[in-house]
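Entry
Fold in token form

___
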Amino acid sequence: IHAEVAGSGADGALVRPGDYVDILASLVPNESALGDKAQKLVSVLLLQRILVLAVGAITDPQVLRAALARESGRPLDGAPLTLSLKVEEAQLLALAQERGKLSVLLRQPDDARIFDAAPELPVANLFDSAFRNELHRRRGVDPRPVRLTATAVSP
């Protein structure tokens, strides 16, 4: 399936044929819900560890590098990804494309993990400092601000 996805070849060609990606969908779960759609927006980890077969019409990573070199490193604007998907995965992706926006997360080449219980994240989490701090903590980043001071250096 071809997927028009943010973070794909259109955004700097970081994703190359042979890479594995995760697909995020940002969408409103219930289209008939009343009220502000933006407040009901959620992010869903839709598919995990999906093989990229092509970026645009390019299936060879070396050919993609050469194409980028010819374009002075400029991204291949609007290049869709061709992904290796099972029928049910393709159906899920097609539905998500119709309902919202898709984004690609590039995986480390040796990362084979699959997350069984990735939660849907509501837009409210953007404004929840406790949630963001917990994310930083799990990543090993101290969320507290660090004061940087300049010291005079003697010549």
Q: What stands out?
A: The first helix runs from residue 37 to 40. The chain has a mean pLDDT of 79. The chain has four helices and six strands. The beta strands are 2-3, 20-27, 42-55, 81-83, 100-106, 121-122.
